[in-house]
Write a structure and sequence with these properties.
Elements (H helix, E strand, L loop, with lengths): L2 H9 L4 H12 L7 H6 L10 E8 L2 E8 L2 H16 L2 H5 L3 H7 L8 H21 L1
Antiparallel strand pairs: 1-2
Helix pairs in contact: 2-4
């Protein structure tokens, strides 16, 4: 699935309930890392749920491994993973998760603690891209 396809899905949603349902459906597409891999991933601070995230570069393309114990976050992480896979290094340096969530109209209903965890991921993305380039 591409980010453009995700945008099209959310553009069809007329209510928060429909957007929530799309997040849950997308969450099912996010692969769960094996337990051994999960224990080696950094745990992201500031989120009310457990949230793991690691950004890496492979063959000139950015990738991430991300997972949460919360379904709604896994839907957001699937969206984030898709956006990262399609993004250039320059775009990732200034990556704005809030703008991404606003674009899909899913930012209004997220708790402050969920947003804190996502903002920490945003910092990790920027720092990692800057360090590896």
């Amino acid at each position: 699935m591409t980010f453009a396809e995700i945008e099209a899905l959310f553009a069809q949603c007329q209510s928060w309930e429909q957007r929530y349902r799309q997040l849950i459906l997308l969450a099912k597409q996010l692969p769960k890392p094996e337990d051994q891999v999960l224990t080696q991933l950094p745990l992201i601070e500031g989120c009310e749920s457990q949230l793991w995230f690691k950004l890496f570069r492979q063959e000139q393309q950015w990738h991430c491994i991300a997972y949460s114990n919360a379904r709604i976050l896994n839907g957001i992480l699937f969206i984030l993973q898709t956006a990262i896979n399609e993004a250039s290094s320059e775009k990732l340096k200034n990556f704005n998760i809030t703008a991404l969530l606003q674009q899909l109209k899913i930012d209004q209903r997220l708790s402050k603690t969920r947003l804190n965890g996502l903002k920490n991921i945003e910092k990790i993305i920027s720092n990692t891209v800057t360090e590896l380039l």
